[in-house]
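Look over this one:
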Amino acid sequence: VPGVGEKRALDLLGKYGSARGVYEHLGDIGGKLAERIEAGRESSEMSYKLATIKTDCALDVPLSDMTYAFPFSPEVREFFAEMDFKSLLRRNELFGEGEKAAPQRDPAKIVTLASAGELAVAADGCKEFAVALGKVVSLSADGRLQYSLPVHENLLDTNPTEREILAALRPALEDAGVKKYVYDAKKNIRYLAGFGITLRGYEDVALMEYLAGRPRGTSPEGYAETLGMPQDNAAAALMAGAREAAALLEEQHMTGLYRDLELPLVDVLYRMEEEGFLIDLGLLAELKKKFDADEKECAEKIYALCGKQFNINSPKQLAGVLFDDLGLPYPKRMGTTARGIKSTSAEVLAHIVGEHPVVPEIIRFRYIAKLNATYIDGLGKVAGADGVVHTEFNQMLTSTGRLSSSEPNLQNIPVREDEGRVLRGLFIAREGHRLVSADYSQVELRVMAHLSGDSNLIEAFRRGEDVHTSVARELFGTAEPTARERRTAKTVNFGIIYGMSDFGLSESIGVSVAKAREYIKTYYERYPTIKNYLNGNVEQARKTGYVTTITGRRRQIPEINSSNFQLRSFGERAAMNMPLQGSAADIIKLAMVRVFHALEGLQARLLLQVHDELIVECPQEEAQQVMQIVTNEMEHAAALRVPLVAEAKQGESWYAAK
């Protein structure tokens, strides 16, 4: 009933017992509310009728013939597995017909020990074993027999303490000649470091499963569940799963990727996280005042342009102001919410940005508010008393192999906007030190030249030309492209890499879809080998179900053979761009490992990786040497048909070094 909200409706139903009871007591209700209820009588009765299950139908078939099997489709199940949606995979089982997340396995035989010494004896003499740390510490050398020891929890508990158990296991944990299978090695390294123990000779089962594309848990116990074993079989599950994952990596030709790149990177990332990045707390306080003032000023402009105050962050209120009060045209192809509210998404605002001066102000308000909340407030919350921020690098998250960071996320700080430059100025070198920032020049385009073998692109890079300018010459048929033409060519270049459609390109460069389609067509005519290469990726994915990077990293793309057009289109785009993005990610990771080891013997420390950029902190007297080392290691991280080019700068802040 229009005009009667959920809370009021519940109050009325509670008081009068039913919808019918409410209508029988309209006189008691009275006022405007009664008028709204009466006006909505027809809608109410129709809704009630539609929501009532009809039970008097004559059926000429038994109910058993009408059972609806509800397994998710194979494509959806593979997607759930890739995204680690274990609860959705399990939900499939509730309907009887679906495949289970994992077949049940025979549980391991568990021997519960009474002392830390007994656990140490169980580990002694083993050339390899799996270990799971937690409220119960467990070991297994073969995946069938597991030794478990509960950890002391309270004053009445007779079990050994965590410290006692780890002290007993220390010789085995620190022996590089004994192979230890752990789950999420970086987390285990940090945990054991708190007890003064250095984990050596480790294998990371979670990392192996990530590369193999198999479902994982968030803990050893959760991993045991994914293998179809009880949670208390954590160590046994690690041992059994490690062998299966290792065999799968070998079969998929990714053993080298795991052993030579991803596993060595674990320690590099741990060291970077421990080192942290110093921020200027004084400048942070100043920026907080500035961003608050900018946000308020922007809001006042919006109120003035709209002639009223409202909650700008409320999509419903904002939609009412834009499309009802101001009468701005709503894009035809944009839908509404389930409640019929018009969207005020970034995509919608981009369509109407020229319709009213308030729209650019709303876009800017959102941008400032996001930076303020995410970085100004966010950095203030996570910075220690010493001003050092310790981000967490996520090695097992993305499908392309790219690293991400969290708490705080330093991967998404804007590069070009003024606010982004200001934010980078927050990150500073410690006293007497400098920051060295080195980034690759057009690494993804160089990867595309290498993988596609396109002679035009290869020669342009070998001659040291600006490739965006070279492409602009081809697109616009001019010897000296303008700055705008070069920017357009740059967008086309990266649009090709990211599988951008003609519509997406038109949105990015502000031209018609037809014009964008013409640019893409011209690009492929000038660089036909690239088109053949990208199409070849799609065909390979259709035949094999996956694509690979230069290191052999594999991504499964089940969507590419889907009968659903949108899923299939997503799969095709992923098949085109994953080898390019993934190879670029592999290269920067290889560079990180090389740089980390090349800096040994110096006081310099690798602090951060953001996309194609590495940041090192070093004493001022080492700065020039570090710039040479970092540049050299980055440029020799991989052997391509075109040269890898890196440029290094130094400064007292991240912005100054950028």
